[in-house]
Amino acid sequence: xxxxxxxxxxxxxxxxxxxxxxxxxxxxxxxxxxxxxxxxxxxxxxxxxxxxxxxxxxxxxxxxxxxxxxxxxxxxxxxxxxxxxxxxxxxxxxxxxxxxxxxxxxxxxxxxxxxxxxxxxxxxxxxxxxxxxxxxxxxx
Length: 140
Hints:
Shape: elongated
Radius of gyration: 21 Å
Number of strands: 8
CATH topology of the largest domain: Thrombin, subunit H
Mean pLDDT: 78
Distance between the termini: 53 Å
Low-confidence stretches: none
Helix content: 10-25%
CATH class of the largest domain: Mainly Beta
Largest sheet: 4 strands, antiparallel
Order of helices and strands: HHEEEEEEEE
Number of domains: 2
């Protein structure tokens, strides 16, 4: 009750204008931060399994995305997420928990997943060709 009373203005009514301004500012920020229009389509969970742990974007090519999954390895999209293709089914660990790209273009993938069914990782893998040849980087 105190929380509700604390929101009342001097006229005894809740002033909704700050909320309306905040929602408008949020919409402006969302439009400004997205290089491409965002449209979500519901796909599951009944017909899709798995979990995406990390998504890496390329500021120079906003349509190019790489996703690291909990147990399926790496996937790439060249059309902003419209279509996905598996990059490499033969990684030392298919549990990818984090992704990063160095300024020289080298891709780093942290492995291992501690949620639900824990999957042991093998450390950090690196690739100079966008994930196609991920190998242990020696930086564990």
